[in-house]
Design goal:
Distance between the termini: 57 Å
Order of helices and strands: HEEEEHHHHHHHHEEHHHHEEEHHEE
Strand content: 15-25%
Number of strands: 11
Shape: globular
Helix content: 25-40%
Structural class: alpha+beta
Number of helices: 15
Largest sheet: 8 strands, antiparallel
Length: about 375
């Protein structure tokens, strides 16, 4: 029996059986990366793993960085590469905002849904073709506007609707059946899978699972995800076509950082810190990755950097302070953090009286001075 957009029970079964994660009970525990305090005492903690790749070399591993993880939405910039490499952005005269939303896990604010609708319209594509399910906007103003209008959330509000719009354009260009554009066996999805594997430095095909939005999601070692992001920031050893596509993704994210995430999100704050020289991307279940272009001001790590973090408990709260702290340790951020990043370095914990009772902050045992 076929599901929406050609995802059959057989495909789902195949996706499930191809994923073989290790026996976590037999593996040594990952280190504590962050703790949550209340009135000066540790109340909770977040374990996880970290990988840092500098100019192609793995220079830091904390925890089991070779353990395969579902990368989830962190791979979106890599998934957009075939769209660019086939010249679709030029043919569709795509502005930066629409390329940025293709790589986004967005908040569903009006600016995001407008960009997605415009992206679809460039190919005469309707919202009904989107294979992602509807959910309420993460953006408070967006949710309020829907409630006041008496409307229900649509597929365009899904945080992955930009990626799916790009997939539809790619499928159309490849001659795929648009009703089955999420089938991992179709030509367009094979191109996407090949791009992700190549950027990660792995031999494909990669194991996959079914993502929350209905698209295939890739399983790869955390260190390989860091390598992919390093490649995104340093195109020296890539073909001219792929190098140009990577540069264009970084430029679009720098020009329209809010389109990649949302006004109050860590991704947006980091993109604003290094406009056009950074790509920061969250994935569900505690995954986060950052690409940083070469910078001679980072005296110890002046080359391209790729960072990848996975919190074992799937917590966003667990990785946010770790990302900022690691960027400080690598010399990318100053000791005195910019105001936009301070709140992510020590996440405040308030009670219902709005009294500050603690913080979530990094305690990772970095093997760096």
């Amino acid at each position: 029996m076929a599901g929406a957009h050609g995802i059959t029970r057989a495909v789902i079964a195949d996706l499930s059986t191809r994923v073989a994660l290790p026996d976590l009970h037999a593996a040594p525990p990952n280190p504590v990366l962050a703790v949550v305090t209340r009135n000066g005492l540790v109340e909770s903690w977040h374990r996880g793993a970290v990988a840092v790749v500098h100019d192609g070399d793995l220079v830091l591993q904390l925890g089991d960085a070779q353990r395969p993880v579902f990368a989830r939405s962190a791979t979106k910039p890599m998934q957009a590469l075939p769209f660019l490499e086939r010249g679709l952005a030029d043919r569709l005269q795509l502005p930066a905002a629409e390329l940025a939303v293709m790589c986004a896990s967005h908040d569903g604010a009006a600016v995001h849904t407008a960009a997605v609708r415009s992206l679809l319209a460039r190919g005469g594509l309707g919202e009904d073709l989107l294979g992602c399910g509807p959910h309420a906007p993460f953006d408070q103003d967006g949710r309020t506007a829907l409630l006041r209008a008496g409307d229900k959330p649509g597929k365009v509000h899904n945080n992955c609707s930009g990626k799916h719009s790009g997939f539809l354009h790619l499928a159309k260009d490849c001659g795929d059946d648009l009703a089955h554009y999420l089938d991992p066996g179709c030509r367009s999805q094979r191109l996407v899978a090949d791009a992700v594997a190549a950027m990660a430095g792995l031999q494909g095909p990669l194991p996959t699972g079914l993502d929350g939005c209905g698209a295939p999601t890739f399983v790869l070692p955390l260190a390989a995800l860091a390598r992919a992001f390093c490649q995104l920031a340093n195109q020296d050893h890539q073909t001219s076509v792929r190098a140009a596509a990577c540069r264009r993704i970084l430029a679009a994210a720098g020009a329209a950082p809010t389109l990649v995430a949302g006004e109050k999100r860590l991704c947006t704050a980091l993109l604003r810190q290094w406009p056009g020289r950074c790509f920061a991307k969250n994935g569900a279940e505690g995954v986060y990755a950052v690409a940083l272009a070469p910078d001679p001001a980072r005296t110890r790590f002046p080359g391209a950097l790729g960072l990848a973090i996975k919190c074992d408990d799937g917590s966003e709260r667990g990785y946010q302070p770790v990302v900022v702290d690691l960027l400080q340790r690598l010399g990318a951020l100053p000791a005195q953090l910019p105001p936009a990043l301070q709140a992510f370095h020590a996440l405040p914990v308030h009670n219902t009286q709005k009294i500050l009772v603690g913080t979530a902050h990094c305690v990772a045992p970095w093997p760096l001075p």
